[in-house]
Amino acid sequence: MSWPDSEFAPRSVLPSNFRIRVAGIAGALLLAGGAVTIAVATLAQQHAPQPAAGAAGVVGPATAKGPSLRRSLPVSVDIPAIGVHSKLLRLGVNADGSIKVPSLATSASKAAWYQYSVTPGQIGSAVIEGHLDSYHGPAVFFRLGALRPGDTIDVTLADGIMAIFRVTGVREYAKSKFPTRIIYGATDYAALRLITCGGAFDYATGHYRSSTVVFASLDGYRKADHRSTA
User: Fold this and answer.
1) Model confidence over 115-157: pLDDT tens digits?
2) What are φ and ψ of residue 212, in 5° steps?
3) Which of 90, 142, 146, 169 could tie 57 with a disulfide, CB 3.0–4.6 Å?
4) Closest C-alpha to 73, from 153, 164, 13, 158
5) Which CATH superfamily is domain 26-223 in?
6) For 53, what's the count of Cα atoms within 13 Å in the CB-facing half-sphere?
7) Residue-by-residue DSSP string for 195-227
8) Which of 182, 137, 115, 113 is nearest to 45 (CA)?
């Protein structure tokens, strides 16, 4: 599984002749794409929450710039409103430059931080991806579309700090109109994007037709209850 190419990918720290191209369009996801059986996809789409029109909100923070944190690798993510607690995988790119995604067979219950984005809390756009469903049913981001502006997303970092993000908007985009610049482009505040599949399942192609994207910005931070290690 991998994301299709995109023109506006963040650059990696790999040699300059190896460009990381993040998924535009379909890339946004990725995830449950064509690897899930039609039976599972049908079951999932009967129950997976879809973003409400009233949850669209805004893509940026409520205040001008907000706080920021130093670089520290993310260890886990908690989303209390939808019952998510997941250790974070760190995924880079495949040999062809496409973004790796968690294995549907072994890691559908885990989210992954795209390691060539900033770490959560740094100025810029941190990206966390997760599957909607799997071969066996709902996966880690099955209920992502149920989030609303104001909900919190807590990311524990390797230095023992918990970065607390506040959701500003939840939107569904057709993969043919995926706003890659908005999702992956540079920002002057500490942004977080959570991404999974969404919309209807296309039986002809074996892919979901849309992507669900949660926009959040750093609201604050505190020492984690229990220091986590990478």
Assistant:
1) 999 999 999 999 999 999 988 889 999 999 999 999 999 999 9
2) -100, 130
3) 169
4) 158
5) Sortase (2.40.260.10)
6) 0
7) EEEEEEEETTTTEEEEEEEEEEEEEEEEE-SS-
8) 137
